[in-house]
Amino acid sequence: MSTTTRDRVVIFDTTLRDGEQCPGATMTFEEKLAVADLLDEMGVDIIEAGYPAASNGDFEAVAEIARRSKRAVIAGLARTAANDIDRAGEAVRFAKRPRIHTFVSTSPVHMKYKLQKSADEVLAMSIASVTRARNLVDDVEWSAEDGTRTEIDYLCRCVEAVIKAGATTINIPDTVGYTTPDEYRALFRTVRERVPNSDKAVFSVHCHNDLGMAVANSLAGIEGGARQIECTINGIGERAGNAALEEVVMAMRVRSDVFPYETGIEATMLTRASKMVAGATSFPVQYNKAIVGRNAFAHESGIHQDGMLKHTQTYEIMEPSSVGVSKTSLVMGKHSGRAAFRSKLEEMGHKVSDNQLQDLFIRFKDLADRKKTVYDEDIEALVDENIATAHDRVRLVSLTVIAGTRGPQRATMRLAIEGRQVTEEADGNGPVDATFNAIKALVPHEAALELYQVHAVTEGTDAQAEVTVRLGAEGRSVTARGADPDTLVASAKAYLGALNKLLAGSRRLHAQYAAE
Ligand code: KIV
Ligand code: ZN
Question: Can you give the CATH number for the domain in which 479 is found?
Fold first, then answer.
């Protein structure tokens, strides 16, 4: 089928809202801006930038993303409450193309237990919220939370009423990841057929991955007539996550014979987006993850390698370069100059200011002095760290650890806390414990260590260690990563990264946990 006859499916990315909302995936203000810039450049049609009423931090991030948006529609989430709608309207009004996305639960179980409202009350709340939102912006999306477990007649009644009130997009989420492809396809067909004014709105899919069917369900919803897919980079999101953007986009591209739709996504940027989101959230991408996993294009078995050498299509259904995987990693080393480093960054898709380049180049030289070859993955880790630590209040200055078979292991650490340098020594049950105890002595806090993970960024014994640390405090979890050829330095950086996130963030109210 030729491109001209294909229907356009719009991509609504909710990495910064549904993705960031999941425990441990918190991003800093700067990280959110960097992710939004990339999504906009990549051709995402709608960026859900956050939930402005949740906190001042969320509001500021949505407002700033709206201000700097170039092409994408910028959406802010809101419950039906007037204050939520107004805050969302205030935050997105700076965008060239603002959208308010208001949602309410419509399933019997949610209305009865979560909202404690009758169906008629929820219908009235929906109409009021859409009407209020339409007074602020022209582009209003209404979502029936837990839509796939909603009674069909009631769902149709709500959809008809909110379209009449001015909703331009109707989203029917599979909030709990319960539906199946056939069921979801049929749901869209039924609603579109039964609702008399359904042609006045775009229908949207929003699928969670609890049974591993989020992508299949999303595509089935499109076959049922929806034309917007809500998804996240790397599939991050509540519980098992949301449908992965890279998977829905590539499924429609590679199997365009079955899914005759097109999107505006520049697929060669998918790998970069995946790495950026993994870096910002510190959520590692599983090695065998479709499209963007480290092994997605690796061929290990002899039979496969033999086939690949004879003809790549024997085992490859898409070119790695079509999703931005570069075959050759141009190796950099200590003799590489500033110009080569800048062009390497550009080749990897990082546009940096002169100041950032200066900072990154110093770090690169430092790394190259300690490591024979610096690979793309190492540079990626440097860039991630540079974005993540730009506004840190607590920074590592130096660390010396005495380790070995004879204890006690002892760490001597120097930190700069808001510019003031302080030093402390601490013992521990092993060098990592001693390192973390030194941090606790210098910055007393109650946070609990929920996760500590180490892996090598590249191959070789001089590879950088990349450490992931998750800290939890007051019901909130944050994750950060640190990279260094010295595992203990990487551990200290990761711990401090998470601590800085806790210090920077305020307690936030998450949309799905809060009743109206
Ligand atoms: O999963 C869901 O129902 C949501 C809504 C807020 C759209 O994320
Ligand atoms: Zn969701």
Answer: 3.30.160.270
Q: How far does residue 219's CA lie from ligand 1's centre (Å)? A: 18
Tell me if 134 sits within 8 A of 89, measured CB to CB.
Answer: no
The answer, yes or no, to whether any atom of ligand 1 lies below 6 A from the CB of 232, is no
Give the ligand whose atoms come closest to the C-alpha of residue 105: 1
Interval 420-471: pLDDT, tens? 999 999 999 999 999 999 999 999 999 999 999 998 887 778 888 989 999 9
33: left (phi over 0), alpha (psi -120 to 50) or beta: alpha
pTM: 0.82
pLDDT for the residue numbered 475: 81
Instruction: Please give the number of the atom of ligand 1 that sits closest to the Cα of 145.
Output: 3
Report pLDDT digits (tens) over 302-344.
Answer: 676 677 777 777 878 999 999 998 765 556 888 888 888 888 8
Rounded to the nearest whole angstrom, what is the distance from the C-alpha of residue 111 to the centroid of ligand 1?
A: 15
Structural domain harbouring 346 = 328-388
Q: Is the CB of 79 under 6 A from ligand 1?
A: no
The reply to whether 435 falls in a domain is yes
